[in-house]
Amino acid sequence: MHRKIISLLLGFAAIGIQLASSQSLSKCFFQKTCIECLDTDYACAWCTDESYGMYKSRCMTLDDLRANNCSESGIETNFNFSMLDIVQDDPPRDFDRERLEAVQISPQRIKLKLGKLEPHSFKFTYRPAKHYPLDLYYLMDLTWSMKDDRDTLVNMGDQLAKALANLTENYRLGFGSFIDKPIMPFMQTEAHRQANPCISEREVCEPTYGFRHRLQITKNTDKFIEKLKTSNVSANLDNLEGGLDALMQVLVCGDRIGWGENTRKIVILATNGYLHMAGDGILAGITERNDKQCHLSQDGEYTGTLQYDYPSLEEIYRVLVKSKT
């Protein structure tokens, strides 16, 4: 009884193999070019033998081509179709100030050809380059509640420079600040409160603004600290801030911000509150979607703050992906 069951199973297996083989053959049979043949099925093979019969299909399974007397050297299959050619493989190299480049990954360029459904493995090596250029833009919430944080950053200016110097000797700094859209319900509209939104704190501060680009990215650390010291706080009315408006401008205004081409780019957004997002602008009657374009005046003021809605996190993400900033 057991022998009969085993015989039946073997019979079914043989039938399955024959069906799979015939299905592959039927897929292969009518293909007219080598590429079409190999792309049709992993089992398809192509005969390049010039002496091969004129009326025979050149696209069959490997076994069928052999059975039809295609020479072994004239058979192209998905098994031997893969090809890896290393085009450029410079060794790792630290940042070169003259070339303004570094080599951190090897190989740099490869040419890879794969057969259908065929995997191929190859190795990359990565070594971080020493003194690779770093552009750091400090984007700070300068609403009233951040006053102490601004003072702390000013006092830590020298420590910040030393910390960056430990990472790379080629670092640069930029600085900008944000408050919120200067319109109700994000700020109070009485004339005396517009002129001095910190009047309830019995202090004098700057009128509310959306985003202000204060310092183009520079190597001058002293200038960065000086801009921090001379940047006064302001205030808004609600507990949410306009940081995403500011971040979008930092990302899309590359020339104005001063981003380098071959640099590692970092934006530090410092805030102690939540941020307004897309859709919040409707509270002030601002319904036009953020256009993801640069709108900085010559003085660094964001001129689109009352025209465009806040961006969404998705829009910020897409700009990052597109620009590789």
Automatic annotation (TrEMBL):
It comes from the Eukaryota. GO terms for biological process: cell adhesion mediated by integrin; cell migration; cell-cell adhesion; cell-matrix adhesion; integrin-mediated signaling pathway. The keyword Glycoprotein applies. Keywords: Cell adhesion, Disulfide bond, EGF-like domain, Glycoprotein, Integrin, Membrane, Repeat, Signal, Transmembrane, Transmembrane helix. Gene3D superfamilies: ligand-binding face of the semaphorins, domain 2, von Willebrand factor, type A domain. The keyword Heme does not apply. Residues 1-22 form the signal peptide. Its main location: membrane. Residues 33-325 form the Integrin beta subunit VWA domain. Belongs to the integrin beta chain family. This is Integrin beta. It comes from Culex pipiens (House mosquito).
